[in-house]
């Protein structure tokens, strides 16, 4: 990619909008997996330009949004035990059952907001008398950097460093959505950055099993419209294939070195998704050889008071069954300054996109 302007070209946008109006003859429901795609669709006004028969459904592709409440509560409990908790900034305002990480920091907890997990490793090396825990949240995209941090900590023989891991995987979530008896999704836009790491192999069985087009897409306006065009073209011609729109970055095989690093530290296991529940084989868990760096194993903190804010429909929004503005508290009690649920907090959350841009 040379210039962002190439993928925000108004003439190219107009071209794909016109082509979509030409080829669309039936109602189609298309789910974009990633919250970054949702924000781009909303921010750039693309939803209003699409043919009326094309309905975009917002998927669960926001790692902050799907991090379970119980894990946020556990992170807060760790802060109460004189642990240095390190986190990416977008996690710090997500509500747990009673408070957020930032609120716990205001009450005296030691919270460090970082840009890289390697910074947490350095903090652990500089504070050998303190336990340091990095709150590792994300999809496949951030898993390589998390794995590298663990490997680096092992090389330094750190005894005071661990990860509170909530890494989730996209394909199992897609299968859960498609297997729902009320599912009305006709096609998917796959998350380009996830496929940059993982490649396309996991999507072919899903497309074949459910007879559904999956088009891997980038995040700029022209990317998304081209991907939607290819999805609709498949639907209108009765095809169901995996296509790669994001060819400038995504290779069929993905990034082999990144996958090797991830597989060195992690294996696949069951994972809880906020407001959705446990999805089998949908997460990354530490291998036995790295268990000493797993905060879930290292610290025994039972969490039993998990609660969901009343009138928050985050689960229905994450499953794509409702839009953010269908929530009774949207823009009222629930705003970015006072979020009831994670989708209003995250920079990739659907509720935040609707509140900021619609």
TrEMBL record:
Protein's UniProt keywords contain Metal-binding: yes
GO BP term, pick one: protein maturation
Domain of life the protein comes from: Bacteria
Entry's family note: Belongs to the HypD family.
Keyword Metal-binding: yes
InterPro entries documented for this protein: Hyd_form_HypD, HypD_1, HypD_2_sf
Organism, scientific name: Flavobacterium hydatis
First and last residue of the signal peptide: none
UniProt entry keywords in alphabetical sequence: Iron, Metal-binding
Protein name from the UniProt record: Hydrogenase formation protein HupD
Recorded GO MF terms: 4 iron, 4 sulfur cluster binding; carbon monoxide binding; iron ion binding
Coiled coil: none
